[in-house]
What does this fold into?
Amino acid sequence: MNSTFSIILTCFLVYGAIIVALNIGIGEDFILHNFGFSGDNLFARPWTLITSIFLHKDIDHLVSNIFVLMFFGTAVENELGKRKMLLIFFLGAIVGDLFSLLVYPPHVILIGASAGVFALIGVGMLIRPLDVSLYPFLVPVPLGLLGILYAFYNTIGFLFGTGNVSYIAHFGGLFTGLLFGFQYEGLKHGLKILFIMASIMILIPLIFFLLF
It folds into this structure.
């Protein structure tokens, strides 16, 4: 089994274990307090830097992360290998958690694999820009273009969004992935890829508007 699907399987197993725990009377507060990440937990329970990655608030949260992880993780793993893919994923998740401390009070608990997934988006869009994803549009979309779209969505969410999404953590993961991508592709070539994909993202709605 490759590393991408090992992470996916772990996420599903942890989600199933949490459902069982809740059904036998272990409270959600106990689980989040001991395994979710927060500023308070950073020193009191440092293992939460890792355990929080595999906790998800509901099935929608889990599945959305899994689908993105499946396409970007597989592309990165095929290009860089299992160990490098795991390093980028976990380092992105940890950096994302640390970024969150800049915005959220110490008692706020954060969970999910999103920051690690965004790290894979950051590197994947540079090193395998022409690989395709079928999620979330159900049609083949190049990873380079999809990565730009995710970065744009996250920026809009950070500036105007509400709710329980840690957009700042996503940025931490994304920046981590981009650093690996620039290191692998070179800064000049990496910026060229970003410029081309950003131009395509702008041109597509413009052409659609002019034609229709």
Summary: The longest strand covers residues 132-133. The chain has one domain: 3-211. The beta strands are 132-133, 141-142.
